[in-house]
Write a structure and sequence with these properties.
By secondary structure, the chain is mainly α. It is built from 20 helices and no strands. Among the domains are: 11-87, Orthogonal Bundle (434 Repressor (Amino-terminal Domain)); 117-208, no CATH class. This is Transcriptional regulator.
Length: 426
């Protein structure tokens, strides 16, 4: 084998889907095999760079051993100049510029609120998180939100920061904890999402704010629906309505509660879902009046309504709502648009329109390349399973081939964010 004089691997090798997948899986044997074939390095040359004996390198390549420690992964990253993010590590000291897997937009700049506890500072931080979440997905933001809760919110909540404040710290803590739950859910960590929601509930109660309390119950209803427990989703949504009646009328709150009730009923094949959908739609055009809860706009309604109608086998209505959600999410709401496209693709498949299903799928892959959402990644896997029986059809085969590479890249992108129990879709 001929050694390259440069210490860096060829750029096209680092960008190769096979290398990206091997790094995301931390399959060091495959990484070494690719380096040997593509970069012209022998066992001895690889070993010198990563501080392993040639026989040990061969054991990795032959699959007789696997890397199990971050120390070994770190030596591989440093020795072969593989960006840390590709192996699920922090950026290495030698990385003097963003790698090819850097985030498409920067994380939000957050105000330091504990120096001067003004309500607008907390609200600005929350809006920064929300804005970034729509573009990046919760996978990239969850750790930042948890750190913000620990560093900025906890000192005010538990009396460490004793300076006077003009804000209801329990309301603020409840709202940000509920947000952390959503981002944990989008990261594929439903266990953590449930824990955040359960912690947010007593905080909202302590704040004496029934709107926030009911808002948390709406989030819990959504999680129950996503976990396939529609009866519990309906129960939680209705409990939220009861609590919400103690406060002022808040259309954003009731829109979410009605849509969650509709989702739960539709999943059970209950036609009463349509009445809940109508009630949710009536809340869309109203002006939101509560600063700490999420907005409920036409795009939010359309995306959920599409799912309800799909569950009720009303494909015409489902398609209309899904197309509306996609159009309303263009230009900034990347994750919402991706969910709309996933729903629309399934609707086309159910209607036998494979050509349009593939077209929507291609648009989805092109527009969500940097989205850090495990939920989207899992639903891509589900769509692949649905389409696999049609692999002999030309547009579907082309789409599935492209999806295979796209899923590998997304796994790499999320590899530095989390490694969940049960793993990511293959």
């Amino acid at each position: 084998m001929v050694e390259h004089s440069s210490s860096r691997l060829p750029r096209d090798l680092l960008d190769d889907p096979a290398m990206i997948s091997a790094c995301a899986d931390r399959d060091i044997g495959e990484v070494f095999a690719l380096v040997r074939r593509r970069a012209g390095l022998g066992h001895s040359a690889i070993g010198r760079r990563v501080q392993l004996t040639p026989s040990r390198v061969k054991e990795y390549i032959d699959g007789k051993t696997r890397a199990s420690s971050t120390q070994v992964l770190g030596r591989v990253s440093d020795g072969l100049h593989i960006p840390g993010a590709m192996l699920g590590l922090a950026a290495r000291r030698w990385e003097d510029a963003p790698s090819s897997v850097s985030l498409p937009v920067p994380l939000p700049a957050l105000p330091n609120v504990s120096k001067d506890a003004e309500p607008n500072n907390y609200l600005a931080a929350m809006e920064s998180f929300r804005s970034a979440d729509r573009q990046l997905g919760g996978g990239h933001l969850y750790a930042a939100v948890v750190r913000y809760l620990s560093d900025e919110v906890a000192p005010c909540l538990f009396g460490i920061d004793t300076r006077p404040t003009r804000i209801n710290v329990y309301a603020m803590a409840a709202a940000l904890t509920e947000m952390a739950g959503w981002m944990a859910h989008d990261s594929g960590r439903d266990d953590r999402a449930a824990a955040h929601f359960e912690r947010a509930l007593p905080l909202a109660h302590a704040a004496n704010d029934p709107i926030i309390e009911a808002h948390v119950l709406a989030s819990m209803a959504h999680l129950a629906s996503q976990q396939g427990v529609p009866g519990e989703a309906v129960r939680l949504a209705r409990a939220g309505m009861e609590i919400g009646r103690r406060g002022d009328w808040c259309p954003a709150l009731y829109g979410r509660l009605y849509i969650m009730e509709a989702r739960g009923l539709a999943s059970q094949g209950d036609a009463r879902s349509r009445k809940s959908l109508d009630r949710a739609e009536q809340c869309v055009e109203s002006i939101d009046v509560h600063p700490w809860i999420s907005t409920f706009d036409r795009a939010s309604y359309a995306g959920e309504a599409a799912l309800c109608c799909y569950e009720l086998h009303d494909l015409a209505s489902a398609r209309r709502h899904a197309e509306e959600a996609i159009e309303l999410c263009r230009g900034g709401r990347v994750r919402g648009m991706a969910f709309g496209q996933l729903t629309l693709a399934k609707i086309h498949v159910s209607g036998g329109d494979l050509e349009h299903a593939a077209a929507v799928g291609f648009e989805l892959l092109a527009g969500s390349q940097n989205l850090g959402s495990v939920r989207v990644l899992r639903q891509l896997g589900e769509l692949r399973d649905v389409l696999d029986k049609y692999r002999d059809k030309r547009p579907i085969k082309d789409f599935l081939d492209q999806m295979t590479d796209a899923v590998r890249i997304r796994k790499m992108l999320l590899g530095s964010v989390l490694r969940m129990k049960g793993g990511l879709p293959e």
